[in-house]
Each structure stands twice: as C-alpha cells, then as structure tokens.
Please model this.
Amino acid sequence: MKSVIIGIDLGGTSIKLGLVNISGQIIQSLEWPTPKNKSYHEVIAVFGQMSEQLLRETVYDWGDVFGVGIGIPGFLDFSTCTVFEAVNLGWHQVPLKEELERLWDVPVLLENDANTAALGEMWTGAGKGASHIICLTIGTGIGGGVIINGNIYHGVNGSAGEVGHITVKEHGGRSCNCGKKGCLETEASATSIVLKTLEQVKEASGLLKEEYAKQGNTITAKSIVELAKLGDPTCKTIIAEAGTVLGKALANMCYLLNPELIIIGGGISYAGEILFEPMSEAFRSFALPRLRQNTAIVQAKLGNQAGIVGAASLIHRNIN
Model:
C-alpha cells in the first residue's frame, strides 16, 4: 500500500534524498556528493543508487512510494517538463522527468529548488498555516520562492521569485554571475559577506584576526556568523549591513505581493538578531504601515531539510 514519498534536493555540491511520510516527516535521509562532472546521466545514476539504498535501509519498497519530487537549482520549462537550464550543473534542455519515470516507474515532479524550500516551510515549517509567503534562502546566492493562495507563483515562463537579482545598488556594485552589478545577492549573500569580511580583515583585530589566521588566511560564512555572535565588531557590522539591504528589498517586494509572512533561511539566518534586527528596522522604515502591519518576518525552521520536505510536497499535493 502506498504510504511514502521520496524527496530529492539536488545541489551543485551535494544531493540530499529523503523518504517522507504523508505528514511531511522525514523517515530516513541520505546525503551524497554531486558527481564532479555533473553530467545528468551520472546524476541520474546516483539518484538510482541513493534511492535503492534508502529503501534497503527502511521497511519500504517501490510499491509503497507515491512518487518522487525533485528540487532543481535552475530554470524549468513546465510546458515540456524539462530542465531548461541549470547553470551550476551545466545542464540545458534535460528531459529529467521522462528519464526518471522510465527508471522508477512512479510519477516524478520537478520544481526550482528555492520554490521547494518555500513549499517545505509552508507544509511543516515556519510557514505552516500561511498561504501568502515570500521565502528567501541566503546562501552562496539568494534564492526566492513566492507562494500565493497556497501555490507557487511561477510567472509566464517559470522565472518568478528570482529575488537575488533585484538591483539594490545602482553605482559601484559588485559584478554578479547574471551579468549585472549591484544585485541583492552581491550585497547580502553569504558570498558577499565573506568578500566584504576579507576586504576588512587586515584592519580588524581580535577574534576575526585570530580565526582568519587559524583558517590559513581565509574565512567562511559560518565562521563569520559565529564570530558575530561572539561579539566581533567587524563581523557584526557586515552582517547588520546585509540585514539593512535585505529589509529594504523585502519592503519593495511587499508593495507588489503583500504577503502575510516572510521566511528567511540559509546559513546567514543563524546570525539571529544580528541580522533580523536591522532587517526588520529597514523593513519598517521602507514599508507603509498598511503593508507592514500584517506581515511577519521569521526565521526558517527546517534548515537543510526544507528542500527534501518541499520536494516531497510536490507529490503530496497531487495525492487524491
């Protein structure tokens, strides 16, 4: 009897795969590195190996599986059910759904990975009970998912929610991978925070200087968050500045979408109040009272499991 769903979160460096029940709880999960050359044939082979291992480690088999949902880091063509382009994987016009349904003989549904994170948070995380949501994931870049009336808003060709490329700095901004300058993710992503910290580390002292030397004259975003929490002034200032930029961008998004909830996830969100206080202050400054009075800004709850849960929800929403 069918009772479980497989959710897959495909990333440029790792693949997370989980067995999820119909309540949105992960029963068992695996994480493997993404194949180095990232060819879709190799990725499909890894999907097959991981799914078989996952089922072997539990009491389930393919007869119990409703289907497989997958979060993809790229653009999808929903008219043809293909991966239109996934830049970080080097994919273009990949018939992933068709090939995987042939492999597994169960329904397969695809969605952008930022959207699956949003769906996961709506199903069992910080967005449970809400139906108008903006979800931002602050990592290497900044991904966004927009949910309206409980459904992902895709736009005319599946490109809605690319909030990381909203222009927030008109002059002197950093170059972005998209070809523009001054994008939100060049000012407030984990990558941006690391770059800004490295620019200032020579003038810094104390905790940051020590950690920089300990890591071999480099620094990670995770370390910057930890140092900020320990009170390092340079790290606190850089994260707070990112929060201010995010708050202004969120206010602008709200003028168009008027959500009830904004969910902030990704590694930088663990900075807590160091990020959220200046972000909320900027949001209040730039959003009119009518807009901000019913909009809450909260931290995501599911962490790196959001993609698995959200991918599984693609199938769950089509059961019955």
